[in-house]
Design goal:
Layout: H1 2-8, H2 17-30, E1 32-45, E2 48-60, E3 65-73, H3 76-89, E4 92-93, E5 106-110, E6 113-119, E7 126-127, H4 130-139, E8 144-150, H5 154-166, H6 171-178
Parallel strand pairs: 7-8
Antiparallel strand pairs: 1-2, 2-3, 3-4, 5-6, 6-8
């Protein structure tokens, strides 16, 4: 009799992949995306040349969340799609002061590309060019001054900008590390 009762019971249903994907899709819709660079890459083999496309993308929500990713594929739209997926995996949170600028000056370096970023007064706007502007705008920074030094490779400039943004520390964070209150600093 007990065995029959067990057979009639339905197994507990675990949340399926479809339910999980619905949550991640709604998160992705909140993120804006921009193309930093699209380049054609060539692989030379014994049989000749094979061409593919490499796309570097930046995604962000405009509230301090930003990520950079690169995708490669035989067609441009596929490369862009892969780049967006890679950028979504690499999302990081940037500390913002008053929701408009960064806490302090910083320099980020990747390869020979060097990017200097400085906080700016309210109303200054985004004074940045190319890849720096794309990363900073999608991070939600409204007032900033930047200067790109050294190499101007778009991919490395974007990564250097992200590195400089990641080095930002708020007064609360530093006070917490020192075991003091913000006012004591």
């Amino acid at each position: 009799m007990d065995n029959q009762g067990k057979e009639n019971r339905k197994p507990m249903r675990k949340p399926g992949r479809k339910e999980f994907n619905k949550k991640s899709e709604s998160k992705k819709k909140l993120l804006e995306e921009k193309v930093i660079s699209i380049s054609r890459v060539t692989k030379v083999t014994k049989g000749g040349r094979s061409f593919r496309f490499s796309a570097t993308m930046v995604v962000g929500d405009g509230k301090g969340l930003v990520g950079i990713g690169t995708g490669k594929a035989g067609e441009v739209p596929e490369a862009i799609k892969k780049g967006i997926q890679a950028a979504n995996k690499n999302l990081v949170k940037i500390p913002l002061v008053e929701g408009r600028t960064i806490p302090h000056e910083a320099i980020g370096t990747v390869g020979r590309a060097k990017v200097m970023i400085k906080p700016a007064k309210e109303g200054t706007g985004v004074i940045a060019g190319g890849a720096v502007r794309a990363v900073v705008e999608l991070a939600g920074i409204k007032d900033i001054v930047s200067k790109s030094l050294g190499s101007n490779t778009q991919v490395n400039v974007a990564k250097a900008t992200l590195e400089a943004l990641l080095s930002q520390r708020t007064a609360e964070h530093i006070a917490n590390l020192r075991g003091k209150t913000k006012e004591e600093l």
